[in-house]
Amino acid sequence: MITVKRSIVAILIAGWCYWYMVIPLPDDMEEKWKVRVIDTTLRTLGHMADVLEYLGVERLSPGSRPIADVTFRLLHSGSPFAPGSDEHVKVYYQDFNRIPALVYEPISSINDPKRPVVVYFHGGGFSVLSAEYPDPLLRAMATRLGCLVVSVEYRLAPQYLFPAAYNDCLAVTEYIMNNTDTLRVDFRRIVVAGDSAGGNLAAGVAQKLGKKIRMQVLVYPMLQAFDFLTPSCRENKEICPGIITPKTIARAWMEYGNISVKHIQDFLCNNHTSPKMKASKWAKYVNSSLHVLDVLNVTNSHLPMQLHSNQKLARQVAKLIVNPQFVPLMADSLEDVPNAYVITAGYDPLRDDGIMYAHRLTEYNVKLKFKHYPSAFHGFFYFINGPLQLKIAQTATNELIQFLNDHLIEGKY
Fold first, then answer.
1. Is 26 left (phi over 0), alpha (psi -120 to 50) or beta?
2. I want to staple 346 with a disulfide (CB 3.0 to 4.6 A). Which of 18, 43, 145, 374 is the partner?
3. Stretch 75-85: mean pLDDT
4. pLDDT at residue 288, rounded to an integer
5. Could you confirm whether 28 is annotated as catalytic?
6. Average pLDDT, stretch 142-164?
7. What pLDDT is recorded for position 19?
8. Can you tell me the distance from the alpha carbon of 5 to that of 57, in angstroms, rounded to the nearest whole number?
9. pTM for this one?
């Protein structure tokens, strides 16, 4: 009898695990079981954070953030330990204008006084993860390109609010620009790059420094907090919910911008903008009908903005959500920004941010390489090694590195 009960319990547990893990995924998404492992792991991490928050533990405390770092190390490499130097790259921390950064220095070019340099800003919604998070990509770039890579350990929200992260990233980039001889890098070949929230920071720094920067690389960037009902937000809100959803995007903006998360539903319904703002020039910048091209084979139907709003909230955030240092897509002019490489993923709520920004760049005749991966999801880019290695991540990495090689090393620009 006990054996039968145990068997029933085991079957119920197995059934629940199957139900929890086997989320529906689009037919054209490759290597589904790996994607499900990634999503399930991160969804579980999110549930743990919810429980801790319910128990009164701060969700984004410095003490809890290492859990996310270890989780991503396991997902990316299969090891919980921070990767260090290897036979190809020296990896060490160094302060740049009193701001810490993780440096990847290739052995092959250690004595080269004119190396390219990539200044990288990691993702994580402005509030989690660290400079080592993009390690697979940064190590590959340093090894294969012979360039110095500097991954900035910028200050995180909500302990440090906007513009702390932006200021840190700008300060490190300017320090490198002003100390190229000491760092043995070529002032003509400075690249700023970042993914997700880091893509936001890279775009903001590129707008500020303009042509002093050789190139900006934006990987599924997070660029606007004006419209949370874009086609990509509506279509992808339930795909890989452990990785990203419109709700997690809105929360990230609110924590970075010092806006109470009690207003999150207002953001998700676009009630945080006034009727006047909804009819303004800024609304046109996020109009997918104007900036999402048919040739991409993605939905570009713009949902007309409803005129109702939370007027008090709208007044509170009105200046913030059109400040280009906070939301680079809202810049009135992109005329003087550096050349760009923009990457988007088809099954990503942030897809249209990158597409609309890329299209706006072309309107200002900015040289642009746009890469859209229709079957990819947000965060796919760093799964180039380890047990959950993804073919699409290897493809995207190889294409980016080849492009950088052509335009930074071979000088084909």
1. beta
2. 374
3. 90
4. 87
5. no
6. 97
7. 47
8. 37
9. 0.94
